[in-house]
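Exercise 7. Given the encoded structure of a 483-residue chain, write a plausible sequence.
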């Protein structure tokens, strides 16, 4: 008994000493400032896909860090995260890919048990400096004698853990590092939670469909959409607000026939011609947008004329705005970009043969410096691109662009067929993907799903994403490259 008590006291003393050298929560936040600055969603306001990925990953990272600071926390699972950061030299030691919007996706897995190691792993994974962390580490050791104590190698005998019932931390860590979340094991662990949340959300889902159908019919709208993945309750609240505005000011909504309304972060009209209603704005701001619709429509006609003129100067190429590949721009912002580019082209008088590029498409971007060809065949052309360099690039890539466009059409058909087949095979109520998941990734995911037997999915809403998660309304999120 004396030996047992002595071991327990020694363990408590060791834990106190170890805590004296680990980072505090405030130290960890300070150490991660460069990382937060690089990935904060507010800096991705015009890039909805990247912003959504970073928002979701930050929530999961904050949960991981909070758990590390809980006293006696023992439950532990490796956490895989993906963040978008601005383009720079690639890190050969980290899994990363580059998006069309000029950012690179960095994926890494956290499996450490202390704040200091976790902070260093995050910074190193994103190729950020760790020099400032070393000073924090020194400052977090106020007792010099503790340092010499901790540096003494201590290895507990296995009989201690079998006798006391405590878990061996070394064994737990080794097991966690070996453990890799699999689709079947994750569904097995989370099926009950998802079903409970889904059943709770069903009345709200019906209410959402009713409100959306009634407003679309009353205003003769083409569609009602949301830019971000808000919960069902939040969406219902936004539709209720629009419904109240319709009742109070029905005369200002006469010009919305055939249009799409998108609830997003700011109000106005988008470059795609959709009516944007900022979710943080009050009815007064929405009313002004509806009152200005006739002027927006006039500007949109001028914008379409500019696109045609640019296409004529570039051999009949079609200028397009694709929401999935471009940042969210207002009509005014996009018009200014087009107008500046048109004036530059007109003055350069490039010798493109009429209709030589008919059937090809180009996207005009304001945040890139070099032209590129998207894998789906769209030319990504910077607004500041040198006309002579642009001419050479388009000519040299024209045939490849046509092949990519054909491949895109085939990919879209395959994706649609696989989604329908998967929904029927697994009796899903809904199968969809996040905007940041490409069609190629979706096709690969569905093909592998169809090879499995997954009774867990019957009646569920399945979202293909970059990570595992159960959303607040019961939707199951799984990574497209699940194991």
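Solution.
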């Amino acid at each position: 008994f004396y030996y047992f008590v002595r071991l327990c006291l020694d363990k408590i003393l060791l834990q106190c000493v170890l805590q004296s050298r680990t980072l505090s929560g405030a130290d960890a936040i300070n150490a991660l400032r460069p990382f937060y600055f690089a990935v904060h969603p507010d800096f991705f306001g015009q890039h909805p896909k990247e912003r959504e990925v970073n928002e979701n990953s930050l929530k999961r990272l904050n949960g991981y860090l909070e758990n590390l600071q809980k006293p006696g926390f023992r439950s532990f699972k490796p956490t895989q995260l993906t963040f978008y950061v601005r383009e720079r030299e690639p890190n050969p030691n980290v899994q990363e890919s580059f998006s069309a919007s000029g950012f690179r996706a960095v994926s890494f897995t956290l499996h450490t048990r202390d704040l200091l190691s976790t902070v260093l792993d995050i910074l190193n994974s994103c190729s950020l400096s760790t020099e400032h962390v070393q000073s924090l580490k020194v400052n977090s050791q106020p007792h010099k004698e503790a340092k010499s104590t901790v540096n003494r190698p201590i290895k507990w005998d296995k009989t201690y853990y079998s006798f006391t019932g405590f878990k061996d931390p070394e064994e737990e860590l080794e097991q966690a590092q070996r453990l890799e979340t699999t689709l079947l094991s994750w569904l097995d662990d989370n099926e009950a939670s998802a079903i409970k949340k889904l059943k709770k959300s069903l009345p709200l889902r019906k209410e959402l469909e009713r409100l959306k159908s009634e407003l679309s019919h009353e205003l003769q709208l083409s569609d009602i959409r949301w830019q971000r993945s808000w919960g069902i309750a939040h969406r219902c609240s936004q539709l209720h607000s629009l419904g109240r505005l319709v009742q109070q000011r029905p005369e200002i909504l006469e010009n919305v026939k055939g249009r799409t309304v998108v609830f997003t972060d700011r109000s106005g009209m988008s470059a795609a011609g959709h009516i944007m209603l900022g979710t943080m704005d009050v009815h007064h701001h929405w009313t002004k947008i509806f009152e200005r619709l006739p002027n927006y429509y006039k500007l949109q006609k001028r914008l379409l004329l500019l696109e045609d003129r640019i296409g004529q100067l570039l051999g009949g190429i079609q200028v397009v705005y694709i929401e999935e590949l471009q940042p969210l721009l207002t009509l005014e912002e996009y018009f200014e970009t087009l107008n500046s580019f048109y004036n530059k082209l007109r003055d350069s008088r490039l010798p493109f043969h009429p209709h030589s590029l008919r059937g090809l498409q180009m996207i005009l971007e304001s945040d890139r410096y070099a032209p590129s060809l998207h894998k789906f065949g769209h030319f990504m052309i910077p607004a500041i691109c040198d006309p002579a360099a642009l001419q050479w690039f388009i000519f040299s890539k024209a045939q490849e662009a046509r092949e990519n466009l054909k491949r895109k059409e085939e990919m879209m058909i395959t994706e649609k067929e696989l989604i329908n087949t998967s929904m029927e095979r697994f009796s899903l109520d809904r199968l969809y993907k996040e905007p940041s998941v490409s069609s190629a990734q979706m096709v690969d995911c569905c093909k592998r799903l169809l090879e499995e037997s997954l009774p867990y999915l019957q009646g569920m809403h399945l979202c293909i994403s970059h990570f595992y998660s159960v959303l607040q309304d019961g939707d199951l999120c799984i990574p497209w490259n699940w194991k």
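Remark. Residues 80 and 325 are 25 Å apart (CA to CA). Students should compare their own answers with the one above.
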